[in-house]
Amino acid sequence: MTEQELRKRLEGLRIEHRDLDAAIDALTLAGSTDQLQIARLKKRKLRLRDQIAIVEDLLLPDIIA
Question: Where are the chain's structural domains?
Answer without folding.
Answer: 3-59
